[in-house]
């Protein structure tokens, strides 16, 4: 985005250096191969609330380039984005390849050059004359302005650190939770809406409500991923151990659940606990698992439900206590929390405060969002601002000559 924007604004020599054989590989795998490009969120202030790290500082950049601007930008470059019911926006073709093609076509049209298998390993600052880059697959290269957008790759953080920036230690964000809960994980594959998650770690408390997916290891799905994002650092510090309270009652609350169980005891007298399911939103397999967890046989009649088991069911449905054993498998997480500290960046231009002429954006920064297209949105916003700023500097100094 930065390269295209700068080139479209008249910067003549824009070169993208990519360490791997092909650029945009993360775009390719993103959103399950569909690429969730952004989110239908029109208010920059509201947009910023979806970022566990960077929320307040991002208000500035978002006031200049937010979701609506990204949607228009892609539209002007030939890619229509379509909104899903939950607000996520995908390419009309429903394939991430369409986003890659759009970006590559725009880059070619603007005259951006690309060199692949060019891994930058060292950056030297030459006062007044810009930067010299060295690395694998690269003869030393000179550049007036330099943009670092190396994602979560450690090499980018090392380069930024060597150039005087503070780097907040990286920890994973957006991961599933592994639980010690065999009766629950036996229900893997079930997804339920409106589940309340409440995690206490030391003095910090994290709450999320939304869709949850039961997996063979524990919990995943949007609400779990959001919880992991907001609690990313606290979970890392607690070595991914803790107690999670889950409210499966879909907003009924303790009183509502108690009333429903009593009503069923009176109205479904002769039917079995398993056959007469009192909560429509709970799939039968999960209801049966709750009966097992409450220690009551599913084939008992409602009239014979012991009071102790009834109380146990209320507890399980409203505040089931589950032990977190760890996070999802290594590498499964979607983004890195941490990176170059935002205090070192002028967020109006994305220029470094430590190293003039150097611009930074994307996942390399200490910014990360929840799922839903927010991570790419921060990249489009930062990239566009940097591209504009680089063009203003280069064009301005060209005019002075
Ligand atoms: C499986 C998965 C699915 C995702 N799905 C979504 C989604 O649908 N929506 C969303 O908003 N976010 C999604 N994300 C997050 C999103 O992909 C990232 O936030 C985003 O790609 C970050 O962009 P970036 O340009 O900062 O870094 P990257 O996309 O990681 O790009 C950095 C590039 O720099 C190259 N590089 C690194 N170091 C060097 C070096 N020293 N020299 C030369 N080249 C270098 C890398 O090879 C890479 O190509 C997903 C992430 C994952 C892992």
Largest sheet: 6 strands, antiparallel, barrel
Portion in beta strands? 25-35%
Instruction: Please name the CATH topology of the largest domain.
Output: FAD/NAD(P)-binding domain
The appropriate CATH architecture of the largest domain is 3-Layer(bba) Sandwich
Look at the structure and give the mean pLDDT: 95
Structural class: alpha+beta
In the residues, how many domains can be counted? 2
Strand order of the largest sheet: 11-14-13-12-15-16
Radius of gyration equals 25 Å
Secondary structure: number of strands: 20
Total count of helical runs of at least 4 residues: 14
- Tell me the name of the CATH homologous superfamily of the largest domain: FAD/NAD(P)-binding domain
C-alpha geometry: elongated
Low-confidence stretches: none
Give the terminus-to-terminus CA distance.
28 Å
Bound molecules: flavin-adenine dinucleotide
Q: Which CATH class of the largest domain is shown? A: Alpha Beta
Helical residue percent band: 25-40%
